[in-house]
């Protein structure tokens, strides 16, 4: 908690002002999380202090809710490019102003994904920076190229350097001789445990061919609809990242959420 507090102070996260008469003051809270290494071992215990954004009123406390996150396809293409060109990969934490910094340092933002930044160097190589909320992935032809981006970032922000990329958004990244593999074994095991499915039997296919789900007035209603929505959301995330084979049936399940 002390490290989080010092990080917030070092990065000038807030400015003390007088309380406006026409605005409410949002309360804050501590959020705790266990971070794991690619091996599944505990990496560190993370504490974050956040504002309770759900207490805001749209049109009064905020107007714009858009915050870009990189597309799963963009992340996979970046890994494929790194494997093909033998690029080095690294991961770091960042704060909101990083995007502005990258643009000032000559990076250009992709028209297809606003979270991907690229810059052409004098030697013809291209370092890449991929942003996801407060994490970034850096790919470069040399370690020097990556270190230059790290130094540039550290001059402006207090950041946590995670070294080589081996864990990102619940995905294990494994670099082999001529390829990079991505899997979500740890994430899927956690989901199975959360929904008491750790002992379930695997099947060859995720769903029946040409299966169509229709609304029925028979049967019992869900005791906890939020639990069902959480399960479908977890499956959608896995499907979009590493398991496209389950997307068809999961998308059908997602349609039933609003019924």
TrEMBL record:
By its UniProt entry, which InterPro entries does this protein fall under?
DNA/RNA_pol_sf, RVT_2
The superkingdom of the source organism is Eukaryota
Q: Pfam families attached here?
A: RVT_2
Q: Which SUPFAM superfamilies does the record match to this protein?
A: DNA/RNA polymerases (SSF56672)
**Would you tell me the protein name for this molecule?**
Uncharacterized protein
User: Which species is this record about?
Assistant: Paramuricea clavata (Red gorgonian)
């Amino acid at each position: 908690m002390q490290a989080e507090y010092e990080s917030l102070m070092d990065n000038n996260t807030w400015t003390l002002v007088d309380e406006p008469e026409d605005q409410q003051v949002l309360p804050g809270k501590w959020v705790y999380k266990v971070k794991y290494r690619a091996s599944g071992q505990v990496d560190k215990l993370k504490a974050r202090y956040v504002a309770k954004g759900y207490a805001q009123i749209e049109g009064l406390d905020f107007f714009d809710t858009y915050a870009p996150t990189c597309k799963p396809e963009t992340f996979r293409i970046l890994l494929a490019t790194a494997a093909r060109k033998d690029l080095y990969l690294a991961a770091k934490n960042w704060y909101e102003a990083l995007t502005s910094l990258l643009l000032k340092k000559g990076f250009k933002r992709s028209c297809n994904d606003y979270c991907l930044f690229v810059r052409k160097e004098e030697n013809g190589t291209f370092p890449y920076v991929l942003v996801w909320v407060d994490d970034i992935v850096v790919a470069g032809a040399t370690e020097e190229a990556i270190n230059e981006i790290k130094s540039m970032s550290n001059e402006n922000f207090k950041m946590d350097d995670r070294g080589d990329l081996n864990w990102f958004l619940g995905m294990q990244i494994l670099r082999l001789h001529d390829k990079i593999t991505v899997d979500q074994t740890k994430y899927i095991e956690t989901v199975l445990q959360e929904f008491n499915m750790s002992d379930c039997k695997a099947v060859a296919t995720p769903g029946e061919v040409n299966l169509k789900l229709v609304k029925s007035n028979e049967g019992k209603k869900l005791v906890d609809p939020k639990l069902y929505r959480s399960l479908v959301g977890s499956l959608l995330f896995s499907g979009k990242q590493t398991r496209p084979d389950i997307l068809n049936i999961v998308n059908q399940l997602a349609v039933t959420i609003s019924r």
